Amino acid sequence: MAPNESVNDDVQATLEQLHGIRRSIDNIDAALVHLLAERFKFTQQVGTLKALHGLPPADPEREKQQIQRLRALAEESHLDPEFAEKWFNFVVAEVIHHHLAAAAATGQES
Amino acid sequence: MAPNESVNDDVQATLEQLHGIRRSIDNIDAALVHLLAERFKFTQQVGTLKALHGLPPADPEREKQQIQRLRALAEESHLDPEFAEKWFNFVVAEVIHHHLAAAAATGQES
I need a surface site. Which of A89, B17, B35, B50 has the fewest CB within 10 A? Predict the structure, then answer.
């Protein structure tokens, strides 16, 4: 066993390292939230267009293409493609929920 | 009723508008995937550090602060804060899953 002092130094160094990494994660999260906000502005435009023209809120063919593309981008950037797909489905579920609300607001059937 | 030709023109204009918006969504999604990949690189570093030092994979106090901050950022950028929180929890669940795997790989208890 190392004496207490060097254990404390080790803990201190680890915590500093952890805080540095967490500051990077916080910066990335701020960027992610702002990009998600921008994405929803665009999907809201899609929702309004679809509702006005009576188009269905979901588009399975488009979603299939998006998933293929995102999985490829994930592999390229060393992100787990399974996670990228689950993440995309999670975001799309929220978008479709918004589209249904837009359709209800304009009195169109979903 | 408008004659068929102007209905077709209207459909054509709507589809063009839809494709334009979708190209923007695709650009944003590529940026989101790359940022998520970068986020996971950092959380993997956190996972390795935690596993090496026997720290628990989850950190409820840190997560609470992150959620508060992300909700505030979401409000500022007109993103639904409820969605931002659900989205964050979804990403963190994956991160903790990775941390548990890292702990198992280094033979530490979770």
Answer: A89
